[in-house]
Amino acid sequence: MGGGWVRALGERRTGSAQGDAGVGRRAQVRQRHGAGFDLVFLDPPFAEGANEALLTAALQAACATLSATGLIYLEAPHAWSDEALAPLGLALHRHGKAGAVAFHLLRALTTD
User: Which has the closest alpha carbon to 71: 34, 104, 30, 38?
Assistant: First the structure.
């Protein structure tokens, strides 16, 4: 894949911190890039605090653009648990902390 998918997701990168950065574009991204992405990086701004609405919206949008075996890398001001991720259709694959930032590698929940 070329750099076009990076531009597709990053075009609205300068959107407000209200969660509009690409959220409304997920159907267009899926249509343009077929089966989805193997890896999506989320490093939202959290200078305003935890901003759960932004993180939740970003996770929902990212989940909708994943391939069947895709992963999401998320940085957040706090750790997300499997219980908090399950309603979004996600589960922890790996997680940890680096300084003040919690990092997560997430996968889609399976129905096995």
Answer: 38
Q: List, in order of start, the domains of the chain with CATH numbers.
A: 4-108 (3.40.50.150)
- DSSP helix/strand/coil, 29: helix
20-50 pLDDT, tens digit each:
444 445 556 656 666 688 999 998 776 655 5
Strand order in the sheet with 66-76: 37-42, 66-76, 101-108, 90-98
48 in Cβ contact with 74 (< 8 Å): no
Please give the sequence-ordered ranges of beta strands (E in DSSP) within 1-112, or none if there are none: 37-42, 66-76, 90-98, 101-108
